[in-house]
Design goal:
140 residues; mainly beta; seven-stranded antiparallel sheet; 1 helix; 10% helix
Length: 140
């Protein structure tokens, strides 16, 4: 299978990607096995704005963290965010579709390094992030 849809799980209380959180975002991603990437496409709406129809910076960080965190699935491990850095390059409109994409940079022992980008439909990079994730167990 080239891509696998990563739906929110009914028993997962995660604010970003779980279905068991009534206030959560219930984000759905795709795991692209051929390209070894995680991809999500969203139009989030004004509920998540910081001001003036622009996506809140914390939500931008959450989207990148979620996508990069899902990269750990390629190693079949559970890992938690240890470091996260975000570059806010351009405003992210709340009412336009965006693509969030993550890829692996490297692995050093228990440390997995990933990077991610948020782009608009024209392909312009609006934000990018880097994350270090530390393995805490296997995915089972």
């Amino acid at each position: 299978m080239a891509t696998e849809k990563l739906e929110p799980k009914a028993d997962n209380p995660c604010f970003g990607c779980g279905a068991a959180n009534a206030q959560g975002m219930k984000l759905t991603f795709e795991q692209d096995h051929e390209r070894r990437r995680i991809v999500g496409r969203f139009r989030l709406g004004e509920r998540y704005q910081g001001s003036n129809r622009i996506l809140h910076g914390g939500i931008i960080a959450l989207l990148l963290d979620e996508a990069m965190g899902k990269m750990n699935r390629f190693h079949n491990v559970r890992a938690v965010t240890a470091e996260l850095s975000i570059e806010y390059l351009r405003p992210v409109p709340v009412d336009e579709e965006i693509t969030v994409e993550a890829e692996e940079v490297s692995r050093e022992g228990r440390n997995l390094m990933h990077r991610g980008e948020i782009r608009n439909t024209a392909g312009r990079v609006l934000a990018r992030g880097k994350g270090r994730f530390v393995v805490i167990g296997d995915a089972s």
